[in-house]
Specification:
The chain has 141 residues and is mainly beta. It has one domain. 13% of the residues lie in helices and 39% in strands. It contains two helices and nine strands, in the order αββββαβββββ. Strands 1-2-3-7-4 form a five-stranded mixed barrel. Strand 5 and strand 6 form a beta hairpin.
């Protein structure tokens, strides 16, 4: 019995996490979550003062929102461009964790972005919302 008690106490203290003093983690505050994607433009739509550019890259689809401006060098449907995409919504839905267990696919959850003038733009099943830093209106830079 003494051996069992000794082993139990020994295992408790040996599994205790060791505290490291003087160790600091350098956290970068301005993390760039953008990614470069060579996407085929398959559809261009608009709502109010915004363009909705639909891209296809391999098996993924993207819905890029861009404010309407006038330009001369416009993107074209059925052409490919390298877009620098940044997600506009959090695809890891965290508002109510119980909702994740009640759905078949978390990508089917509606996630929306509201713009000036009350314009609400939402994702579609399997198509997330993004902005592109190298797309202004329909002009590609």
């Amino acid at each position: 019995m003494k051996k069992v008690l000794f082993l139990l106490i020994f295992s408790v203290f040996s599994c205790k996490p060791h505290k490291q003093s003087g160790v600091s983690i350098d956290v970068q505050k301005n993390v760039d979550f953008s990614k470069s994607v060579k996407g085929l433009v398959y559809k261009i739509d608009s709502i109010s003062n915004y363009y909705l550019v639909y891209l296809q890259h391999e098996k993924a689809s993207y819905k890029v929102i861009s404010e309407k401006i006038n330009c001369t060098n416009r993107i074209k449907i059925d052409s490919s461009y390298i877009f620098k995409l940044k997600p506009l919504t959090d695809i890891n839905y965290t508002n109510d964790s119980n909702k994740l267990t009640n759905i078949a696919n978390y990508l089917d959850l509606e996630r929306c972005v509201k713009y000036n003038g009350g314009v609400k733009i939402c994702n579609e099943p399997g198509i997330e919302l993004y902005s592109a830093s190298n797309l202004h209106g329909l002009c590609f830079f």
